[in-house]
Amino acid sequence: MTGNSNGTKLDNATLSLLKDGNTSIIISVAYMIITAVNLVGNGLSMWILLFRTSPKTPSIIFMINLTLTDLALGTALPFQIAYQLQGYNWNLGPRMLPLTLIFYTNMYCSILTLTAIGIDRYLGIVRPMLFRQTRERRSIAIISCLLMWGLVLSVLYPLMTTDLTFDIPELGITTCFDVLKTNMLPSMAAWAAFLFSMVFVLFLFPFCVTTFCYVSVIRKLARDSKTVQKERAIRLAFIVLLVFIICFAPNNILLLIHTVLRLFYKKSLYMAYKLTLCFSCLNSCIDPFIYYFASREFRQKLRHIVNLHSQSSADSMKMEHKESIYSTQCPFEGQEREHSKMSLMPQREGM
Length: 351
What we know:
single chain; mainly alpha; Rhopdopsin 7-helix transmembrane proteins; two-stranded antiparallel ribbon; 12 helices; cell membrane
């Protein structure tokens, strides 16, 4: 959550931010850049995933789910930009309030999806004998995506059933999701359960699982013979963990600290929390790069698609053959290929 209120009186940190036009402009410019990169990168990635990638392995399904959440954020950010540039004055009416929840649905669905991809990589590389049937794994992947959304929406249900607007007469504005009333939940126990679900269930536990999975993958690959594919897989695993820490950890840690300070000590870290929200949105821009553009083979295919790299028909056929091999090796795709079983065993750990 981005703020708290004890009824009618705001803390000085919140008032200071709402009055600070320079900070509003800086954050809005950051959101503009994020929106542009998000829509271009994730739009292209979605097109490639849906129409240029086959078969739809479990990791591809998870990546489609991740891209959908990123695109949803990209379409909602312009409304947040307009809101901030108008001095934190929400004039779109209550029907548009669900747009503000996309910040949290994106962040937590992204976290859970990254965890699911990590588990899929762990099973495919460290425990390859489990869930060997491709169709079974696809069904599990689809059900997992539905459960992710169900869990996130269940945790955020109090925000979905609450009037998130807050009138500030002294500033002549009506905020949206920047000030939450203490009576939004019936008791401190309910607030504790709400915070625990957001910070520990939707962030800390998935982070620990993701870390375990990728550390296990790195250790497994490090013990094998060194190849370019395996080195790339290790680098990508490190990048995923780094993005997880940079984009998600600051916001969730400050969420917990800020809310505790506001509820019990009438203090606030609102300015810092607001800035970390930009970092959580930044993940939506990085996802296409760390999962797709880190691959040399994918870049070649991308250049071919957008006609930035001319090739002869023979070179194109060779590249497509190389891509088909790569798709069984990518560390973020399932290794079970129905049409190339002969190449599975020697390549299932590589990239």
